């Protein structure tokens, strides 16, 4: 956190290469500077505070500035001008500027039009926080300035004032969003003079009468109205929408239960009606040009009897009381139909769907009534996706009675009461089959298509798998099944990932376990009651990720690891020693958390290792431990280490976790110096009495709290290193540090408050340990290994999420 205006003033004079070093944790290509008052400071009235977001427009999205959980830097007009003038920053794209309070906007505009000179800015946010006396006249004076480069604007209105002038300032707007935070209806009757360039208008909870919306620009293509409680259907009909309007959304406006008599724009192509309390959608004239219709969260909607336009492509009815669509005539152009979370019981209407329908989603309805006859249902001949999740359809019916179209590629049948696949003829082009959560007890003697790539079988009732699955399969999920053996199961040749878990397997080996031609690279065996490496046997040579977590392993001796293994996870077992385990030179990530390891003295770790987690074990001594030269993460938190007398940390180290030793760590003098690249260190919840290390320039986090003997060191660090975070959670203590406390007595009070309130830094290992590098994980598995300061990129990354707690 850059809190010193003098520092920032000097910084903005420096060449870019020096600035890059100062901002080494966030390169200028993704530099974000928040200039404003955080919630616990008072906003100054005569200075401009702006939020500036700088970065690659195609880069990761950042959080809205309203969330107030970003880093704070304070910049007034001179500092902002200095930033603008520095030619070293001309290549950086400024994506957004936020101006807090109309008074600050006026002062800025009157100061030689600062923003006019910044032609790179296109997106501006204005928060009208207060309206001091005379503000209207000052705004009119400011209106001579035209910010022609601004094409997107968001205005948050929290006070009653004339809206005409603020909008006129932005003469070339394409997108305008206005949000009211004042419940009272204003005495404002003049239409807002919106620029003719405007294409998208969003009005949320407007506290103004309908007259404000008249005379909309002819270029307007999209309108979003939310919370327009003060507008009746007749008021809506009086709005003169431009002929160019093609997209209309009306949301969160109770009181529009009956839409009969509504006049919609004649050339509308997309209409979304969300949470309006609609009870009946009948007697409504829809524009012939309409291509997309969405009715969402209209909980009491029970009737849908309307003539659908001949050109309709997408129809979505989501979360309603609708029970039947038998009377609806669907147009031949319909391609996507979403009927989610309704009360539909009968499937007879499916025979009325056009043959060209591509996707049909019917999750969470009431399908499965005994009155249905699946053999009479004719699904669209070109259907590619069918989703029936969450319907108890196959308790009373058989899947084989439903004729699946040959074009079907994605079939989702999770939690549908499916009892059997007997006599089912699967479409020849099927790619994804989701059977999760059904009471299926066998899949033997079932012929699956050769095109199948993903087969999801979690929580089935299978005890044996002898079926021959197609070699095209890439992903198999056997988790949550009471499997007793897999000895007769043949792994498909193309399969990349297999998941086993939450079953009494006890041991596992496959029919073609030793086949060198297998493409299997990731194997996850969790909660399978594995007690010995002998229960695993020889692993396929191509495996790069092996997870054997939450089993009953006591030792790893005898486990022969594949020659190209990159990631080994054996956390949450009963392992006491690593003796006898030989690591391939390719191993980078080693997770040994929550075991009973007492010593690592004789363990030879591979030099390629970048992450080593031994948290939650029974280590009492790590003196003399030889850490690999490329190690970036070293975690031995939640052990029983009382002192470190000799430990050399590699220069590659980025994160060091020593917090929460059960007996209390009293001495770390054996660590002679901290690595120059160290970004994060946690020694909290111990019994340390001194910390006299030079802080590496790039260090961002040093959790030092809950060490009663370190209160004076912590106070010194807070003064000498204002950018350094010393507390795990944003709280009163951290605000005190951000304010640069003035005396050690004050620090003692904050430290005592923190101790009395408890510290989460001594909590579970899942809360402590950073996430593993992205490249070593499968997106399909959550390891419960992250805390709220996790680094999913394996280094102290430059993404926005890294510093959200700041």
Explain what the structure shows:
The protein is an alpha/beta fold and 806 residues long. It has a domain at 1-172. 11% of the residues lie in helices and 16% in strands. The protein is built from eleven helices and 31 strands. It has a 29-stranded mixed β-sheet, covered by helices on one side. Strands 11-13 form a two-stranded parallel sheet. Helix 5 (135-142) links the parallel strand 4 and strand 5 (152-157). Helix 4 (102-110) crosses helix 5 and helix 8 (711-720) packs across helix 10. The longest helix has 14 residues, at 744-757. It starts with a helix and ends in a 38-residue tail after the last helix.
A few lines on this structure:
By secondary structure, this protein is of the alpha/beta class.
Radius of gyration, taken over Cα atoms and rounded to an integer in Å: 32 Å
Oligomer: single chain
Kindly state the number of beta strands.
31
Helix content: 10-25%
The tally of helices reads: 11
What about the largest sheet? 29 strands, mixed
Low-confidence stretches: 1-77, 129-136, 138-145, 730-806
* N-C termini distance: 8 Å
Mean pLDDT: 76
Structural class, by secondary structure, is: alpha/beta
Structural shape: flat
Strand content: 15-25%
Biased composition (Acidic residues): 745-755, 763-777
Keywords: Leucine-rich repeat, Repeat
Region (Disordered): 736-806
Keywords:
single chain, about 800 residues, alpha/beta, 29-stranded mixed β-sheet, two-stranded parallel sheet, 11 helices, 31 strands, about 10% helix, disordered N terminus, disordered C terminus
């Amino acid at each position: 956190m850059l809190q010193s205006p003098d520092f920032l003033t000097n910084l903005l004079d420096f060449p870019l290469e020096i600035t890059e070093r100062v901002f080494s944790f966030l390169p200028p290509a993704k530099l974000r500077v928040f200039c404003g008052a955080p919630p616990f400071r008072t906003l100054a009235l005569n200075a401009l505070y702006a939020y500036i977001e700088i970065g690659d427009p195609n880069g990761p999205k950042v959080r809205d500035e309203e969330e107030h959980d970003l880093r704070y830097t304070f910049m007034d007009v001179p500092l902002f001008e200095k930033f603008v003038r520095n030619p070293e920053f001309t290549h950086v794209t400024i994506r957004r500027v936020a101006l807090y309070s109309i008074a600050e906007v006026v002062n800025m505009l009157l100061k030689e039009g600062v923003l006019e000179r910044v032609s790179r800015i296109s997106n501006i946010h204005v928060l009208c926080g207060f309206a001091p006396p005379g503000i209207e006249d000052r705004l009119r004076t400011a209106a001579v300035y035209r910010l022609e480069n601004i094409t997107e604007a968001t205005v948050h209105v929290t006070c009653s004032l004339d809206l005409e002038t603020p909008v006129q300032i932005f003469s070339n707007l394409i997108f305008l969003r206005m949000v009211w935070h004042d419940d009272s209806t204003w005495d404002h009757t003049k239409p807002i003079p919106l620029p003719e360039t405007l294409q998208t208008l969003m009005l949320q909870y407007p506290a103004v009468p309908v007259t404000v919306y008249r005379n909309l620009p002819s270029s307007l293509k999209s309108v979003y109205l939310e919370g327009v409680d003060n507008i009746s259907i007749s008021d809506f009909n009086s709005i003169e929408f431009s002929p160019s309007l093609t997209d209309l959304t009306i949301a969160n406006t109770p009181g529009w239960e009956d839409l009969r008599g509504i006049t919609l724009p004649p050339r509308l192509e997309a209409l979304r009606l969300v949470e309006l309390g609609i009870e009946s959608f009948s007697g409504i004239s829809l524009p012939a040009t309409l291509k997309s219709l969405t009715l969402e969260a209209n909980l009491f909607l029970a009737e849908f009897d309307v003539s659908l336009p001949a050109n309709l492509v997408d129809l979505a009815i989501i979360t309603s009381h609708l029970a039947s669509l038998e009377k609806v005539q669907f147009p031949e152009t319909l391609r996507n139909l979403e009927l989610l979370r309704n009360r539909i019981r009968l499937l007879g209407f499916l025979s009325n769907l056009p043959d060209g329908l591509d996707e049909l989603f019917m999750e969470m309805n009431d399908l499965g009534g005994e009155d249905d006859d699946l053999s009479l249902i004719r699904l669209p001949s070109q259907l590619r996706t069918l989703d029936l999740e969450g319907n108890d359809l196959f308790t009373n019916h058989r899947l084989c009675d439903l004729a699946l179209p040959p074009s079907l590629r994605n079939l989702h049948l999770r939690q549908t009461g499916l009892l059997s696949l007997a006599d089912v003829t699967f479409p020849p082009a099927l790619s994804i089959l989701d059977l999760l959560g059904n009471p299926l007890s066998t899949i033997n003697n079932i012929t699956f298509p050769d095109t199948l790539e993903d087969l999801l079988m979690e929580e089935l009732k299978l005890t044996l798998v002898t079926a021959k699955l197609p070699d095209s399969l890439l992903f198999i999920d056997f988790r949550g099944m009471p499997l007793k053996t897999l000895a007769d199961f043949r792994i498909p040749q193309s399969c990349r990932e297999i998941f086993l878990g939450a079953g009494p397997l006890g041991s596992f080996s496959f029919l073609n376990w030793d086949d060198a031609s297998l493409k299997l690279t990731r194997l996850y065996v969790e909660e399978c009651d594995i007690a010995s490496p002998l229960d695993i046997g020889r692993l396929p040579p191509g495996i790069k990720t092996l997870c054997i977590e939450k089993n009953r392993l006591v030792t790893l001796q005898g486990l022969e690891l594949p020659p190209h293994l990159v990631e080994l996870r054996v956390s949450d077992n009963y392992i006491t020693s690593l003796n006898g385990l030989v690591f391939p030179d390719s191993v980078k990530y080693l997770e040994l958390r929550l075991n009973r390891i007492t010593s690592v003295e004789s363990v030879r770790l591979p030099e390629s290792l970048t992450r080593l987690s031994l948290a939650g074990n029974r280590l009492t001594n790590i003196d003399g431990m030889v850490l690999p030269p490329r190690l970036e993460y070293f975690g031995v938190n939640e052990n029983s280490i009382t002192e470190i007398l000799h430990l050399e940390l590699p220069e590659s180290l980025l994160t060091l976790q020593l917090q929460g030793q059960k007996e209390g760590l009293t001495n770390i003098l054996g660590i002679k110096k901290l690595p120059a690249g160290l970004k994060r260190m946690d020694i909290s919840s111990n019994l340390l009495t001194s910390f006299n290390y030079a802080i590496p320039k790039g260090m961002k986090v040093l959790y030092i709290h809950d060490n009663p003997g370190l209160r004076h060191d912590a106070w010194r660090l807070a003064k000498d290193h204002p950018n350094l975070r010393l507390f795990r959670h944003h709280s009163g203590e951290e605000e005190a540090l951000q304010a640069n406390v003035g005396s050690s007595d004050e620090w003692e009070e904050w430290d005592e408050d923190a101790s009395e309130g408890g510290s989460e830094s001594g909590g579970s290992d899942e809360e402590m340990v950073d996430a593993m590098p992205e490249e070593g994980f499968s997106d399909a598995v959550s390891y419960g290994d992250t805390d709220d300061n996790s680094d999913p990129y394996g280094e102290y990354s430059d993404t926005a999420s890294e510093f959200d707690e700041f």
